[in-house]
Fold:
Amino acid sequence: MRAEPLTARRWLNRSEELLRDLDTGRIQLTHESLDDLPQRKAIEHLRSLLIAADILGPDPGRALRHLENAIPDLLAPLAPEHRRLASRWATWAVLSRLRALNDDRRLATAVINSRRKIGQAANFLAGLEDDGRVLPDCTQHDIDMWFAGPGAARWTVGPFLTWARRRGHLPRSISLPPAYKGTPEAPAEADERWQIAQRLVRDDELDPVDRIAGALIVLYAQPLARIVTLTTEDVIVTPAGTRLKLGDDALELPEPFAATIQQLPHRRRASTVEQLPTRWLFTGGHADKPLSVNALAVRMRAIGIQPRRHRIAAAEQLVREIPPAMLAGVLGLTFGSINRHTTTAKGQWATYAADRQG
Structure:
């Protein structure tokens, strides 16, 4: 394994005591033992290296376990009554649903969202405490003022308030707003999207990561959260061509994307992380983790792609040209998403189906 010598030496010097304790057995080489150690960032880096090198087994439940361990800290500032209430909700309404998920990709995203919900529930209750009140004293004015505040994150308190009202902890007369839908965003102009698509096809100087991710957004309407979860197993190379598994059926990739995707995962540095084997097409800073959604969004904007606007534009064109069942099967788009874009694009697939039957 070749890595940047200076970087590797600095990391070894910082981690000398930890590595010695693992080697002597003073610290057991298990995920549970690593969870109990301080220096969270350093421990997570080491854990990722150990998993990638097959020294430590995979830990699919890590994200959920970290959330379980974090809940007491998230709720610690609250008064005992509110802490018990929020903890009960987190246990029976949040964690129970997460434990029922059997898809690692969905679980990782769901854990992040759940942590945000718990944090906002704690913030809402803390605001009441600052006024010397408890949840049963909450008024409609409190609710209206909370949701009128800046930031979309505060809307994630909705599930907690709904749960509390249903169980009588919040006055039943309280009216809660509908779920936050965000600000509608217009799709990119067709000419703009076409120019970017041409660059993705022709510019061999583009980083393979940017080229493939950009094509998946601009041409195939893939969301960032789906792109970063793609693995080497999703790329199928045969004498007949190169295909990418986005849905139940694999998508046949044209050139130059068929050749470019075979360059992934793309090694850009000589760091230890990037020398270890990985199953992720788009590698992140940790050996066993993919590139984050935020990091990929930054990369896309740097080459002129606005992920949401260009994805919407691609989806609206696709629903005009391809039957919904095919879009769902090949691109993995949900029927709900397809229906929304079909309505926006004034698709006529009902007429199409009738014509085909007649």
Remarks:
- Strands lie at 235-238, 241-244, 251-252.
- The radius of gyration is 24 Å.
- Residues 31 and 59 are 7 Å apart (CA to CA).
- The first strand starts at residue 235 and ends at 238.
